[in-house]
What does this fold into?
Amino acid sequence: MKYYLTTPIYYVNAAPHLGTAYTTIAADTIRAFKRMQGYHAVLTTGSDEHGQNVERAARAAGLSPYDYATLIQDEFRRQWERLGLHIDRFERTSDPKHHRAVVDLFERCRRNGYIYKGAYTGQYCFRCELYVGEAEPGALCPDCRRPTETVTEENYFFRLSAFQDRLLELYRTQPDFIRPEFRRNEVIAFVSQGLNDLSITRTNIQWGIPAPVEGRHVFYVWFDALIAYVSAVEGEDLWPADLHLIGKDILRFHAVYWPAFLMGAGLPLPRQIFAHGWILVEQDKMSKSRGNIVRPEPIRQVLGGDGLRYFLLREIVFGQDGSFSYDALVTRYNSDLANGLGNLASRTLTMIRQYAGGLIPDGRTAAGALPEIAAQTIAAAVSAFENFEFSRGLEAVWGMLSAADKYLVEQAPWNLARSSDPAARSRLAETLYTAAEILRIAAVLLAPALPASAQRLWSQLGMTPPLDSLRFQELSWGQLAPGQAIGEVAPLFPRVDPEQAVRRMRELEVQETARQKALLEGKTAPPPPATPPAGPKITIQDFAKVDMRVGQVLAAERVKGADKLLRLEVDIGEPRPRTVVAGIAESYRPEDLIGRKVVIVANLEPRKLRGIASDGMIVAATPEGGLPVLVGPLEDVPVGARLT
Ligand code: MSP
It folds into this structure.
């Protein structure tokens, strides 16, 4: 049985951020969940490459639109890869196979009488590539709130008005076609007011798919883009899609235009459209113009891909808007992952190693309420995920984990282990088996949401069948085999210091922003060169001449008139802090450096930089073509310690 799902295909005039990652992570979770229900689940994403915005951005970067699109779609692919997302098909709208599919859909609609030529005068938002129906000249774009421009064109139209009844009939007979329910109601209200025909070609744009008509018409970007869902799986038995996962901002295109285009062409309709909400940063939608974009990469580097996934899926009710903040992210990570699941796993496995020689003890006898709780949790979590209620599903699993925690405290296996009484020994075996079995069931239930950590937990339990080959239908209590040797035990989610973790993510965010900005401007970083050969050899005496000390930053500020320089006051254990001028202003914000441990070359001849006497040098690693990264001790070391 197949399950075909899609994310939107993303515009290539912006780089991936938390918003686009959110949809793609949710889609990856659903794909994995469906696979573990036994479906042949296939996920399509891609890049939406045509239109005025890309044309403009490419020109500004000095590249052809195609080369520009190639550059940015590469960035998306790399990001999904780093996040470990399983993308089965990636469709570029510049792909010739997609062009053929678009022309084919147009021809089918034309043959069926739904295409005509007409004149269009109206308001157009160039930024959103949106004609704003029935708006006065100068009206604001409903999406981006910028003034629209008046345009008149002779265009080809799609007879959308002919589909009002059929669309309403579709929403009525297939109540779960649009989800969540309140979005369905919005669409019904919109369509009930009547539909205007839609202009689907443009003559004021060159970068698009040429329409098979006289003149220089290219297809309107939304007529072109939606068809990517079909062209991505051309020649396979996957269409119609079972699910289009989208953000609420593009619901109308998917729930009104798209089914109408398909009806017009006589093609099967997708089965379901789910519109999730927005991720808000400080109550605002993330956007370039508001300058509040958060990128996934810094979070991945500090808390891991699963740390990010857990937050997005657990904290936000899928379908509603939700807020993102670094503080909330780290709090959730520490409380639920490090102290919750991670702690239960390491305690249980360490006890199995210590008290049972690293073998799962035979303790399948009655084990209190937990087998029943586990059975209920399996049912609740699977049904929640089936319904895309990720937050509720995860909550159910965490309910089971805390029941197991409580059980361990009650049984106190650490006391039982001290007794040689056979009754205590068998209760110990039962307790450890029960806790391990809870972990095994949690690993299976969490595999779609936290794939990397669930797999690690799975291996630590000594399980060998591939985790994703398991089926939820077959999951039940007691399948853990006694006598099985557990694997190597390592922390699943190392606890992080909240302040340091947030600071590090903010620092990385500054660097990632600069890197993406350069990319969007067409200034790609040069390919990483081979590491330069090490310099000439020196003696240990030579090295001993360099006096390097651990220091702590007490104060930091920008140096006026110098983009790259920061002035730092660094305590290296001397009576007075050193003043050091460092070329790290592009990598770090001054406020993020206060309190940070760094390494200083303490016996360098002082030198004046921009009128400031710099008494020492900060040690940083600078990747070729990249920005400097501060070097510091991995463990806590007192100020003044010498590097030898
Ligand atoms: N190219 C069109 C889609 C064509 S589909 C045939 C497009 N692209 S986009 O790059 O702007 O991506 C929009 C999608 O990204 C949204 O629908 C949503 O899925 C996701 N998000 C972008 N910003 C978001 C948030 N701030 N929050 C949540 N999701 C967001 O529109």
